[in-house]
Backbone:
């Protein structure tokens, strides 16, 4: 079953430098896309504004029939991107989407914002 990481590509941290040519969200998105490129069961997509501006940078981790999560307060770094992808791979492998805390990659600990139950038919 595929888990999708949705990356807010409009996220900007306070003090964002407009001359950089990319938002912090675009930078994080590119890093996540690169890290997820060959990861089985993980897909990525970009979305403009996840409405979590005070928690920038934001992503969601979602899978059909599974618990879904919003994570935020990331800096756009390769370490954060890899942690997000590693967590998404564990989410994909878990029948319910619930990954035991002891298996969470260190870069995502402390970044959970919300959790959403699966939609029912």
Residues:
């Amino acid at each position: 079953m595929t888990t999708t990481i949705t990356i807010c590509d409009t996220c900007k941290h306070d003090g964002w430098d407009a001359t950089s040519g990319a938002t912090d969200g675009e930078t994080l998105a590119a890093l996540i896309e690169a890290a997820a490129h060959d990861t089985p069961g993980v897909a990525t997509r970009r979305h403009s504004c996840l409405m979590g501006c005070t928690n920038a940078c934001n992503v969601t981790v979602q899978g059909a029939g599974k618990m879904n999560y919003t994570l935020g307060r990331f800096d756009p770094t390769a370490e954060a991107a890899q942690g997000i992808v590693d967590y998404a791979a564990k989410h994909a492998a878990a029948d319910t989407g619930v990954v035991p805390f002891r298996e969470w990659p260190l870069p995502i600990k402390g970044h959970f914002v919300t959790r959403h139950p699966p939609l029912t038919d």
Summary: Helices lie at 24-36, 78-93. The domain at 3-116 is CATH 3.40.30.10 (Glutaredoxin). The radius of gyration is 14 Å.
